[in-house]
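Risk register update: the risk of archive-format incompatibility is retired. Evidence:
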Amino acid sequence: MTPDSSKDGFDESIFDTDHVIFKNKDLLKTGHVPNADRIIGRDEEIEKLGRKLNDAVRGLSPEDVVIYGKTGTGKSLVAKHTTSGAVRVAEPDVDLGRCYIDCGEDSTETQAIRAIANTLNEESTTGVMSPTLG
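Archived output:
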């Protein structure tokens, strides 16, 4: 029997931290947005989207934006990174919100609208309750 084995033969050493594959597994989570210095090769896209959101940070209606492309090219990353920056730099009197809809989870218009309402509406502040049906 090895020092790391229990009497039933189970090798407990497989749970040692020396066997971890990922240093920070949180980086793999779907909703994770890395720091700007970790986003490589998307400067132009971030800048273009930022320009489109310029009116929003000043309290005006922003331009409509459609982001499209192949899976895994960084669309969600760019959108999440840029919109979180827009919320941070919005003028003090501007209440800018943001909402990310995963159409894999919210695949109908009703589900998407409900997700937006649940994300952006603060019932305690507005007194408006988002309906759960319809």
